[in-house]
TrEMBL record:
<dbReference type="Pfam" id="PF01462">
    <property type="entry name" value="LRRNT"/>
</dbReference>
<protein>
    <recommendedName>
        <fullName>LRRNT domain-containing protein</fullName>
    </recommendedName>
</protein>
<dbReference type="InterPro" id="IPR000372">
    <property type="entry name" value="LRRNT"/>
</dbReference>
<dbReference type="InterPro" id="IPR032675">
    <property type="entry name" value="LRR_dom_sf"/>
</dbReference>
<feature type="signal peptide">
    <location>
        <begin position="1"/>
        <end position="19"/>
    </location>
</feature>
<feature type="domain" description="LRRNT">
    <location>
        <begin position="30"/>
        <end position="52"/>
    </location>
</feature>
<keyword id="KW-0433">Leucine-rich repeat</keyword>
<keyword id="KW-0732">Signal</keyword>
Length: 81
């Protein structure tokens, strides 16, 4: 059982280390991995403005974003719902 938990933790850490800073002036506050954008746990109060349109997964939990415009994700046509 301990072995399984250890393997899961190691795999999770490896996935996180593959995430690289995103390019662009605003999105640099997030990390990217392929088409996934990780902005969770950041001190964001607004949605970054330069999220790549190819983004399929956007993680915004544990931020200070309290409201989003109705069309906030309109340009993110590849975003999974």
């Amino acid at each position: 059982m301990l072995y399984v938990v250890t393997v899961i933790v190691i795999v999770s850490l490896l996935k996180q280390t593959n995430a690289l800073p995103c390019s662009g002036p605003q999105i640099s506050v997030c990390d990217c991995e392929d088409t996934k954008v990780y902005c969770y746990g950041r001190n964001l109060t607004t949605l970054p403005s330069n999220i790549p349109i190819t983004t399929t997964d956007l993680y915004l939990s544990n931020t200070y974003i309290s409201t989003l415009a109705e069309d906030a994700f309109a340009d993110l046509v590849s975003l999974d719902s």
